[in-house]
Amino acid sequence: MFEQLLQAILQGALLGGYYAIIAAGLSLMFGVVRFINLAHGDLSILGALITLSLVQILGLPVLAAIAVMLPLMAVIGWLMHMFLFERAMKGGFLLPILVTIGLGAALQNGMFGIWGSDTRSLGASIGSLAWSSWYLPGGIILGKLPVLIFGTAVIVIGALHLMLKRTGLGRAIRATASDPEAAELCGVDARQVHRAAAAIAVGLAAIAGVFLAMRAQITPYSGPAQLIFAFEAVVIGGIGSLGGTLIGGIILGLSQTLGGLISAQMSLLSGHLVFLGVLIWRICREEKLAHGGWRAGLKAVLGLSSKRRKLASGDLS
Amino acid sequence: MTDYSIRPIPQFDRAIIAGAGMAFVVFGLLPMFGSALVVDKLTMLFIYIILAVTWNLLAGYAGLVSVGHQAFVGLGAYMMLRMVEAGVPPFIAIVAGGAVIALIAWPMAAFVLRLRAGEFAIAMWVLAETIRSLVMLDPYIQGETGRSLVVLNAYDPDMRRNTIYLMALVLAGAVIVISYRLLHGRLGGETQAIRDDEEAAGSVGVSTFRVKRIIFVLSAVGCALAGTLWLASAITFQPRTAFGIQWSVFMLFMVLVGGLGSILGPILGAVLFMTLQVIFGDFGVWYLAGLGIVAMLFALHVPRGIVGLLSEKMGREPITMQKLLNPKRT
Q1: Of B90, B103, B195, B318, which shows the fewest CB atoms inside 10 Å?
Q2: Nearest CB to A109: which of B111, B129, B285?
Q3: How many CB pairs under 8 A join A and B?
Q4: Level-2 CATH architecture, domain A2-262
Q5: Total domains in the fold of chain B
Q6: Chain B nearest CA to A132, separation (Å)
Q7: What is the pLDDT of residue B2?
Q8: Confidence at residue A304, expressed as pLDDT on a 0 to 100 scale
Q9: pTM as predicted
């Protein structure tokens, strides 16, 4: 029993690496561009399917296929931002949601039209990596692929962090994120920065998609589920923080594998419940700050308090 | 002295309303001579109208874009299934199953309406997925397999089809009339004020949360009614279909193409959507991909949809819910 628990905890934490990669792109877009891309998961599947075709039809080695696919996906991200998202963002906060969900529907069904409904996997193309494991003392089995994915997640997020802190582009991104107009006055082209962020985000989504295809089966309709996981990881970890994204991913992975110990159906459900719990806790905390005290805040949320909420928490300062 | 009275309904709008009333009567008589196929298609059209009108109430008038309202479609269908299992006559369960969803949506609103715009959209989606997983835990649903509403097979097929058709017609009519009356009244003004500027609306004394909550619950009940009607005509309940994201894509398409934030838009959108489905439905996924692209293009280039184009031609919106003051000065 104890071994099983330890095994689940290890697996959950490693699974979190995958969620962190796909969530990092979403978080970057949300933090820098203030844009939620509801087609993020579908773009991730698109990257995976392109890689699959390069490997299985053209016979490229997996790494070479990824090397071809990544720049392609980054360009797609850049162009999408240029032609769709920028226009959508001008129309207020409703339009991006509407445009990207339309884009998602178009992508899913378009991919179905091109690649068909079969479940596909890269598992067969990566040789022994797909199934070989390390055996640790105490009967713990550590799959090599999950460790590779987790390692990549740490490297990717570390690299992204360094890029944001140290490079010119990173400075431009941070400046644009905090105040696009002031950044423009200092000579930063905010539009180019936003496009670059979109390219990076789509690239990250594609990497995650390739990993998903390596460890599991994918279909053209797998995207929405990945978007939901990514969003959950972002919210659990705290919006706009890269380190938080990794932690959020790990918490989500842990709750899924631990829920999976109870029953297969509980796996996804417990992930959702943890996410909703975090969301409710956050709302209650905001109310607590606005009303002075947990009890008053909770009453306000549940509508028991006769006092109307007069000030948004931001107006208090 | 300026006249602050509100402008009366223009002649053209009266003609549209009269036309709609006549269409209602014609549709009501249709089962007597229409074929079974026509009746089935029209039932589906009325379900789409209910979905589009209620989602528009939420997104177009209150500015709350949800991509999780399939939660209520599925829940309505599930409630109906459960009620029928408990012995409620199926035709009563169609209405009752939809109405009880208000009891679920009301407490739910306390949390989701406190989220920011984009978060609200996806949190609703996660909620829909969560509710689907919970429903699938119910042994009666048998997981992915689902259940059928076998009780309905006991009725004569023609009688069943026509009853569901008439119920769908009446409910669609009721949803349109109720949302029209509602938007014409004080709540409509408050709702649109919140959509346009929530802080400003709050500062002039609109209790923004209460208004948003009412609209949210109404939209949930509308979607649930669409869900029960859909289950009654489709018979089979499968969690993946009932709680599928496709409902949101359909609603989005109908409302965006018809005209977001207008009373006529979603109805036109639903009619257009049904027509497209009849003509191009055989193209399968490419048809669905096309819907996504058209919705996207409309959102970007014609954000006010067909009704927006019409208003530009006419110089004003047909059957507007905006409060227009009388132009005459005395």
Answers
A1: B103
A2: B285
A3: 139
A4: Orthogonal Bundle (1.10)
A5: 1
A6: 32
A7: 58
A8: 55
A9: 0.87
